[in-house]
Amino acid sequence: MRRLILALGAGLVFGLGLTVSSMINPAKVLAFLDVVGGWDPSLALVMAAAVPVAGAGFVLGRRRHAPLAAPAFQPPAVRPIDGRLVAGAALFGIGWGLVGYCPGPALAALGVAVADPKGADLAGAPLFILAMLVGMATVAFIDRRMRK
């Protein structure tokens, strides 16, 4: 139960941060990504604020013997860069550049769009999430077929 409460709290803080920073607004994200047109550098400030906060988290994490909700730290596995990783990164970047959403901000935007149906440019969030889920299911299906 403690893990669920901590996960919920972390998700709410993350979603609030995405909302306050306007990263849930696809027009804002697309303006940030458009470095040759009407570039809006304001989201760079979000990154500038996030890097030291993440760094402090890593420093504090190294001082702990275990995480708050697990018996031990589990570092990520080191895996080589392969075709799947490159293809996935390319699809992620292309999708983000085309519509201005990635999974986290889309989920946060969905919450705002449901709470305020007239809210800004957030009407595309449900469609993006549906397309994302279809894409994930398609990749899982193809993976299962290829492993057989």
Automatic annotation (TrEMBL):
Record's keyword terms, sorted: Membrane, Transmembrane, Transmembrane helix
Membrane spanning residue stretches: 41-60, 81-102, 122-142
Database matches in InterPro entries: DUF6691
Protein name: YeeE/YedE family protein
Native organism taxonomy: Bacteria, Pseudomonadati, Pseudomonadota, Alphaproteobacteria, Rhodospirillales
